[in-house]
Specification:
This protein has about 600 residues and is an all-alpha fold. The longest helix is centred in the first third of the chain and has 51 residues.
Length: about 600
Amino acid sequence: MKLHLVDVAIIVLYLFSTIVIGLWYRKKARENKESYMLGGKSLPWYKLGLSDASDMFDISGTMWMVSLCFVYGMKSIWIPWLWPVFNQVFLMMYLSRWLRRSNAATGAEWLGTRFGRTGAGVTGSNIVVIAFALLSCFGYLAYGFIGLGKFIEIFIPWDVVSAYVPFNVAPQYVPHVYGIVFTLFAMFYSIIGGMHSIVLGDMLKYAIMTVACIWIGFIAAARLQGNHLNVPEGWYSPFFGKNLGLSWTGIINEVNDKIKADGYSLFGLFFMMMTFKGVFAAVAGPAPNYDMQKILSTRSPEEASKMSGFVNIILLPIRYSLIVSLTILGLLFYHQMDLKDAKGAIDFERILPAVINSFLPVGLVGLLLAGLLGAFMSTFSGTMNAAQAYIVNDIYIKYINPKASTKKIITANYLVGVFVVAVGVILGFFVKDVNSVLQWIVSALYAGYIVSNVLKWHWWRFNANGFFFGMLAGIVCAMVFSVVIPAVDLLYWVPVLFAISLAGSLIGSYVAPPADMAVLKSFYTTVRPWGFWEPVKKIAMEADPTFVPNRNFKLNMFNVVIGTITQSCLTILPMYLILAQKTSLMVTVAILAVTILILKRTWWNKLNDY
């Protein structure tokens, strides 16, 4: 076991602080439902943005992204478009404002502002969005759970611990045991302190990670001086053609097998499919998870936009400093690391913990472990908070006990929190690896979600019935596809999922009447979306001739393009900096400066105008 007493002390101090935070905010969280779920909508945008960024700085995703950077080099910056990462740009430019204007507490509650609150279609739409929210939340919990276990296993081998526990554990389940232990800490401070506790815990974790990432960046840059990375031609370039164009033959032959298993060899086709799905996913708005809850927790629509923009600035440079630093050290010391899993196969997701375990100094190891444990805990707690909100707000209060007292609501949140964690842990036992559950979430489940959620913003005739059948068709197909189609091929079936979901949405909409015009008019004048709203716009302007419809489609789309370029520059800048690629770095800085100046004039200065 590599851990020094100093490293252990840092980790224990961090875990103890999370307990203190939970207890500190216990009374505040118990004031009312809104204080528990949304922080009373009193938290400033920069705190919520930092918290949202911390939730995205998860341990499983970071392990995955380090393995991608190792294998694909600069081209790896595109692969997270699977999520898609540029959805934050769409949120920043206009969608966060649209969502926050609803003043809802959850995505299911938001549907009431769009479709009304009565009718079979409305009930069905609520049920299906709750089902999707819980499926995605449970998927993310299992994803984080298995990643944490694989991470901890390298630092604390089971043969060191087994003598002190009264039970035997099969080798393949050792990560799950570690996952359960640290999940309990995340569960405690999240359930006890609610959103206030989650945000402060995220801020503490981010501070630790910032110090650790900068420190490891200096170490990686110093190690690189006088050394040459043995990588294939094209590794340093983010550009690509029809094929990936990277051959590791004669360097690290096993990497070729990884590329083949990932299914990214035809990188041009992969990129087109990923971008096609990603744009529609971004236009659909935030999925019903911790990201949506943070937007709904902001103090105003303008602050919601600022929060989403701040996420990019606060997350990408620090995270990619860590990713490229660990990649550099992994490449320099590859033949000194043991990357084999319990079955003897090479697992490139183990590069991150292997580098930390072998090549970093005392103190930094403790900081990184504390920060990455915090990364798991913040993602886990934010996801758990979202799942709690849906079960308590949209099932318990709406259908079981509408007159529940604050005390009963808080108790229900406690019980639901324990239930959600238990389900996430159980699902974690069925997850093979981080990439498999990630592919299912982003390629199948989210593809079934997209069509209905694009139409709800942009087409007046789309109703609750169409939302229900579109979502149901998409989710059921996603579940079936995930069983019969290999995970690496799911992305290429997205057009089929889209077509089936679109058919369900259109048929469902036209077999039922439109939503009540009073509801549509209220939604249109409050949220002020652009799109196909002509009949509603006409009625709204007849009722109020001073009403000004949203004509900012072209400006929003221009800002999205500029924002995506800015986001890509923020991603690749720390990589070029630490790799000492001076020319590429200067070009990146110049592009970044120009795009920031443009966005200052076309977005920031106009936040109150649209």
